[in-house]
């Protein structure tokens, strides 16, 4: 299928949007970035026209022609089914299950506990001090990475990347979560395999171009 017109509604520091940027780059699909500032003026995601595109008021949203696609994992699977080469998923059902499990560990179990709307609720509704909010983030990132490191370390399915020797959807999820962890001061020293895979990923142009600081809406000097 021809790529046609692809628009990604994104925020430079959103890890969910970061995942989709990596996937698009790995596929070699050109796309237009439409910036949605999640903080300015109370958050552009809460206002039309973006809230009409996504009633959840979350990024990313991908427009492919007239199709409106939501949820980063579902978007990545759509991209893989629509443009199968190069694949984001392994060839066998067992390996695909492993990639989905790793992806969901990050995107479903870790990320929702430390994303912007949770931290804003703590701050604005419960008046939780910043130091305690950041301690919350570090606690849940460490819990997730402890489990993930154990999943990856010395597993015969782990290769240069999370599963095998080509990047998959799991790597698209891992790299943004490592970025978040470092942003909040998580000690990454215990996570030897996670650090090795992240370094391998970021050496690839597809991952490097997707970095938050390389996005058109990133503040100068970020």
Keywords:
alpha+beta, 8% strand, 222 residues, 4-stranded mixed β-sheet, 4 strands, single chain, globular
What does this structure look like?
The chain has nine helices and four strands; from the N terminus they run βαβαββααααααα. Helix 1 packs antiparallel against helix 7, helix 4 runs antiparallel to helix 6 (130-152) and helix 7 crosses helix 8 (192-202). Helix content is 50%, strand content 8%. With 222 residues, it is α+β, with helices and mostly antiparallel strands. A four-stranded mixed β-sheet has the order 2-1-3-4, covered by helices on one side. The protein has helices spanning 15-27, 50-53, 72-82, 93-110, 116-124, 130-152, 169-183, 192-202, 205-210, and strands at 6-10, 32-35, 61-64, 67-70. The longest helix has 23 residues, at 130-152. Strand 3 (61-64) and strand 4 (67-70) form a beta hairpin. The mean pLDDT is 97.
């Amino acid at each position: 299928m021809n790529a046609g017109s692809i628009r990604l509604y994104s925020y430079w520091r959103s890890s969910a949007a970061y995942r989709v940027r990596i996937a698009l780059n790995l596929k070699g699909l050109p796309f237009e970035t439409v910036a949605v500032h999640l903080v300015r003026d109370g958050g552009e995601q809460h206002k039309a026209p973006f809230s009409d595109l996504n009633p959840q008021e979350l990024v990313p949203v991908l427009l492919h022609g007239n199709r409106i696609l939501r949820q980063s994992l579902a978007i990545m699977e759509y991209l893989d089914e629509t443009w199968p080469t190069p694949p984001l998923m392994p060839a066998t059902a067992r390996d695909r299950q492993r990639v989905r499990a790793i992806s969901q560990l990050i995107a479903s179990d870790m990320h929702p506990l430390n994303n912007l709307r949770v931290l804003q609720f703590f701050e604005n509704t419960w008046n939780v001090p910043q130091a305690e909010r950041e301690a919350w983030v570090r606690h849940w990132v460490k819990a997730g990475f402890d489990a993930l490191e154990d999943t990856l370390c010395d597993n015969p399915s782990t290769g240069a990347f999370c599963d095998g020797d080509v990047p998959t959807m799991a790597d698209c999820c891992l790299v943004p979560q490592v970025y978040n962890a470092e942003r909040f001061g998580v000690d990454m020293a215990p996570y030897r395999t996670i650090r090795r895979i992240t370094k391998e990923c970021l050496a690839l142009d597809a991952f490097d171009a997707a970095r938050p600081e390389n996005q058109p809406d990133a503040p100068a000097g970020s």
